[in-house]
Specification:
Layout lengths: L14 E2 L6 H11 L8 E5 L2 H14 L4 E5 L14 H16 L8 E6 H5 L13 E4 L6 H10 L3 E2 L8 E5 L2 E4 L8 E6 L2 E8 L6 E5 L1 E4 L9 H15 L7 H7 L21 H4 L5 E3 L3 H25 L2 H4 L6 H4 L3 H8 L4 E4 L1
Parallel strand pairs: 1-14, 2-4, 2-13, 3-4, 6-7, 13-14
Antiparallel strand pairs: 5-12, 7-8, 8-9, 9-10, 10-11
Helix pairs in contact: 1-2
Length: 352
């Protein structure tokens, strides 16, 4: 019999063996319903995205009162030439800003569901997202120019029409914007500097589907190309890779304040330091999925393989690959040792 109330009362790692899928969701919901102060929020680390989907489905059925925040990993290969999809970045930033906004005294049941790959990945510091949420209600003052500047400075992409999260369009006194984690875009109607109305609409038919009352926008990027970030990148890039010879598209684009495909793979250069998910949720109990640590080891081997492949191509002198200068893996990802060290500060339950 599992003592749910005292599951995380000891520092030793409890092992929940012979646990078929579904038991995890049941345990979490039982813990959320248990009397007495439970340690919330908690972190559940799934093996992969498929497990995330199944766990969330179980939680939605068994415990609809439990707040579930999802942090996905980037959907691109390590050291890739492309950036993560904007929808993925929007989901990640929405999750991180939600964790930052939680009051320290808020003990309501909240679960962060993530994957091994996402937990390994280092994150922008919490300070990077503070003060970057724009919230207004219909009838309040919001200059369209102020809104456009906020959107452009926080990773939103200007387009002719809005179809995906992270896009916005301006047409006279109307601004269409697709906020992160929203199911539909919003149409904002301005009268001068007054936000006159907010409407949800279908991006295919352009027809209004519902009337909105509040606007809440968070960043859709983990890199903000302000003057400080650009200067840090320039200095860090030269320090890591030496003097530049010939054209370097990444360096030139960032120096000019322009987003460059794949620039997120140099994330450490834009900040004085990076943090981890453990910094966002200090002391939060951690649930490890079946074979989570084996999955971690495989992922770390894959990251190292991609890094060494990039290094080998540079050493071979191929012009196309010579421009790509990969950062050391430990600057972007946790190692097995730093994973174990971080886990030491948390109560951990292992499912098997």
């Amino acid at each position: 019999m599992i003592d749910i109330a005292n599951l995380f009362s000891k520092k030793s790692r409890p092992l929940i063996a012979n646990a078929p899928e579904g038991v995890d969701a049941w345990l979490l919901c039982q813990l959320a319903a248990a009397e007495g102060p439970a340690p919330w929020p908690q972190i559940f680390v799934c093996r992969d995205d498929a497990r995330v989907a199944r766990l969330k489905a179980g939680l939605g059925f068994l415990g609809p009162e439990l707040e579930v925040v999802t942090l996905p990993a980037w959907d691109c290969l390590p050291y890739d030439r492309v950036s993560p999809h904007r929808d993925i970045l929007a989901q990640r930033v929405a999750a991180l800003t939600r964790l930052i906004e939680r009051d320290a005294n808020d003990t309501r049941p909240c679960l962060l569901v993530t994957t091994v790959s996402a937990l390994i990945q280092r994150l922008p510091p919490r300070e990077a997202f503070r003060g970057r949420v724009l919230a207004r209600s219909a009838g309040e003052t919001l200059a369209p120019d102020e809104l456009s500047a906020f959107l452009a400075g926080n990773g939103y992409l200007r387009s002719d029409s809005v179809g995906e999260p992270g896009e916005f369009a301006v047409r006279g006194g109307l601004v269409d914007v697709f906020p992160p984690a929203a199911t539909q875009p919003l149409r904002l109607d301005f009268f001068g500097d007054e936000l006159e109305s907010i409407r949800c609409f279908d991006p295919l038919t352009q027809r209004t589907t519902a009337k909105g009352h509040e606007l809440r926008l968070s960043p859709v990027s983990e890199v903000f190309l302000d003057a400080g970030a650009i200067e840090r990148f320039r200095g860090g890039y030269r320090e890591a890779f030496g003097s530049l010879r010939g054209g370097d598209p990444l360096y030139e684009a960032v120096s000019a304040g322009r987003p460059h495909p794949g620039m997120e793979h140099w994330l450490p250069l834009f900040y004085e330091r990076l943090e981890t998910l453990f910094d966002y949720l200090p002391g939060a109990p951690v649930w490890l999925d079946h074979q989570a640590e084996q999955t971690r080891d495989v992922r770390l081997e894959t990251i190292l393989d991609f890094f060494e492949a990039r290094q080998s191509l540079r050493a071979a002198g191929g012009l196309a690959e010579q421009v790509y200068k990969p950062l050391q893996p430990e600057r972007l990802y946790l190692t097995a040792e730093s994973w174990d060290q971080a886990m030491g500060g948390h109560a951990v339950a292992q499912l098997s």
